[in-house]
Amino acid sequence: MKKISVLLGLLVMTLLSSVYAQQYDIQLDNKIYADGIASVKLVAGDDQLADPVGVLGESLFHISFDDLNLEIRHLKFTFVHCTHDWQLSQLNSIEYIDGFMEDDIVKYEHSFNTIEPYMHYEATFPNENISFSKSGNYILYVYDDTPDNPILTRRFMVLETLPAKILCDVHSSIDVNNRNTHQDVDFTVFTGAYRIRNPQQSVRATIQQNGRWDNAKMGLIYRSGSATELNFHYLDGSNTFPGGSEFRTFDISTLKSNADRIVGISFVNRHTHAYVLQDDARPYAAYESRGNMNGHCYYRNRDLNNEYSEDYVFAHFTLKSDFPFTDGNVYVFGELTDWELQDEAKLHYNKEFDFWETELLLKQGAYNYQYVYLPYGSSEIDATYVEGSHYETNNIYNIYVYYQEEGSSYDRLIGFQSCSITDQK
User: Fold this and answer.
1) 231-275 pLDDT, tens per residue?
2) Which pLDDT score, from 0 to 100, does residue 10 have?
3) pTM, two decimal places
4) What is the mean pLDDT of the chain?
5) Which of 14, 12, 25, 40 is nearest to 105 (CA)?
6) How far apart are CA 271 and CA 293, in angstroms?
7) Which residues are paired to 248 by β-bridges?
8) For residue 7, is pLDDT > 50?
């Protein structure tokens, strides 16, 4: 009877990963499902600006987020293995999870001395309770007590311990029509320890711009080379991205004075408000270089050294434009909106002052953002309609190379490299 119980338990655990993604209708993407969850960060290591890419058996991942609703939760998490293009892989959970099939989030603290109270949650993995045995793409699934109460999902990538070497070259587009506005990302993969017999069938690559997944180029196939050197150099635009413009910035890490591009701070109806310097639409402006975080944000309270002391602030945005937005909507966009088009981030026209405006509740820190346009009836975000586009822009491109070995049923992540156009200067 005991053996039967163990076998039944293993069978249930084997089905868990597909149940999470199908029965409970979670998305294999970065999503928040519960009201009040904010400021989600998933990184490899301790740096807030690090990519969620780690090495199998060596790197630690760190997830943190806040609950502004202060609900009593019993949070747990597990992993879901995915293919190179973020579909559910053929692996069962017992084939890629070591230890327990789920773990509890046991580290949580109330915010310290904040006007907007919240509960802060953190967890680190892999740990002594749960880890993974395979490389590739993963979904971190956080839920409240049972899997039918989703809280959030986050993508992260696990790299093989002996990765292939990648050399990349970011340059202005070879298309003469896009030479001044677009960037091509060429790269070569040196397979090293991997003896790849049929790379046309078994190797796929992804190019990601500035941490965004909505415009990532997936499923790229090598164009030429040998068994040990695979060239991903295209002439058809498969590796081409609009350069866009450098991200706009502001800083609310202090509320005692106006920091970078903050023109006023007020306290109204028990809430703190910060007003970002008015922006101008710049579709035809000249390229302007500035140091930034490529759309990301860094949480910090410069006025207090205590942990969890960052308050939440209503940040007000205004955009002045010489042309109307009659065929679509404009949004504030970046990590501050989870790289999504959020309803709260949609700008509305203020007829009295002749500008577009919105406000977002944000955690104290330094921020990057931009204005993106979504035409009516379209699902493709246009980051150039308001901001313009330049080949010189210092975008960060992440290159991921996947290999499905002959006889295997999953995509191994065998290569990862970040690069930008400034690497060639």
Assistant:
1) 999 999 999 999 999 999 999 999 999 989 999 999 998 999 999
2) 41
3) 0.93
4) 92
5) 40
6) 28
7) 369
8) no
Map residue 141 onto helix, strand or coil. Answer: strand
Structure letter (DSSP) for residue 128: S
Residues 6+ away with beta carbon under 8 Å from 346: 329, 330, 331, 358
Cis peptide before 52 (omega within 30 of 0): no
Nearest to 250 by CA among 311, 308, 293, 309: 293
Alpha carbon distances (Å) from 61 to 47, 99, 160, 335, 336: 10, 17, 15, 18, 21
Cα separation, 5 vs 173, in Å, equals 61
Which tokens is 337 given? 């909106």
Mean pLDDT of 350-371: 97
- What the chain holds in terms of domains, given with CATH numbers, is 2-159 (2.60.40), 165-243+393-424 (2.60.40.10), 248-375 (2.60.40)
User: Distance between CA atoms of 204 and 196, rounded to whole angstroms?
Assistant: 12
CA distance 195 to 228: 7
| Residues 78-119: tens digit of each pLDDT | 999 999 999 999 999 999 999 999 999 999 999 999 999 999
The DSSP output letter for 395 is -
Cβ atoms of 61 and 44 closer than 8 Å: yes
In this structure, the chain runs to a length of 425
Range list of β-strands (E), 100-181 = 103-104, 107-110, 119-125, 130-132, 136-144, 150-159, 165-172
Cα–Cα distance for residue pair 29/14, rounded to 1 Å: 22
In this prediction, residue 72 carries a pLDDT of 87
Check: CB of residue 393 under 8 Å from CB of residue 243: yes
Q: What angle do CA 54, 110, 51 make, to 5 degrees?
A: 15
